[in-house]
Write a structure and sequence with these properties.
Blueprint (H helix, E strand, L loop, with lengths): L1 H15 L25 H10 L3 E7 L4 H10 L3 H10 E7 L5 E3 L5 E3 H8 L6 E4 L10 H4 L2 E4 L4 H12 L9 H14 L7
Parallel strand pairs: 1-2
Antiparallel strand pairs: 1-5, 3-4, 5-6
Length: about 200
């Protein structure tokens, strides 16, 4: 039992990484200055993203989430990752337990926490990729082209954004096969960081 507890502690420290000074908002969530602040009307946000030549991504986080902190400090702080996301996606942050008003694609007006429940999101971070055009009469969960529940390393994280950007969900190459192919290409090029 002691070994299991010690292992869990080491794993948590490894996931949390070095304690960097991350900006924390009043809601307790880590903030990126390039995240978009909107009225959280998902159809409107999809349209605004499209007008900017981007895709909409919703990211669910919660206060005190060590995986969210690791994502901000280790993944989103990497210019290769953040530059790609900023160039191609409009990111709107949601608080898994927040009370801000959200308008779902089907017209339901909810709070962030009831939206998370309705859409079935239970892990933080959860990253939700929306289609290029807002469909009518369906929820966000039904409209999402991909969902990334939980925290991952740099290449899995970045490759998911690339796969969605390339509309891999419309093709025959499943994300896992796409990711394996990219990892092999990175390995052959000598660019592979520890994943």
């Amino acid at each position: 039992m002691k070994r299991m507890i010690a292992f869990a502690g080491v794993l948590l420290l490894a996931l949390a990484g070095p304690a960097a000074a991350a900006e924390i908002g009043d809601d307790g969530l880590h903030k990126e200055d390039w995240f978009s602040i909107t009225f959280k009307d998902v159809a409107e946000d999809i349209e605004t993203a499209a007008d900017e030549g981007k895709r909409l991504v919703l990211i669910f986080e919660q206060r005190g989430c060590i995986y969210c902190r690791a994502m901000h400090e280790q993944i989103l702080s990497d210019p290769e990752v953040s530059d790609f996301i900023k160039a191609n996606f409009k990111v709107v942050q949601y608080n898994m337990f927040g009370d801000e008003e959200v308008t779902d694609l089907d017209g339901d007006v909810l709070t962030e926490k009831t939206a998370a429940r309705k859409w079935g999101y239970v892990f933080t971070p959860t990253i939700v990729f929306l289609p290029e055009e807002a469909p009518e009469g369906v929820s966000v969960a039904e409209a999402a082209v991909a969902t990334m529940p939980g925290a991952f390393g740099k290449w899995t994280f970045l490759n998911m954004f690339r796969w969605v950007h390339e509309k891999g969900y419309e093709g025959d190459e499943h994300f896992q096969k796409y990711h394996a192919r990219i990892i092999n290409e990175l390995r052959e090029a000598g660019r592979l960081d520890a994943e």
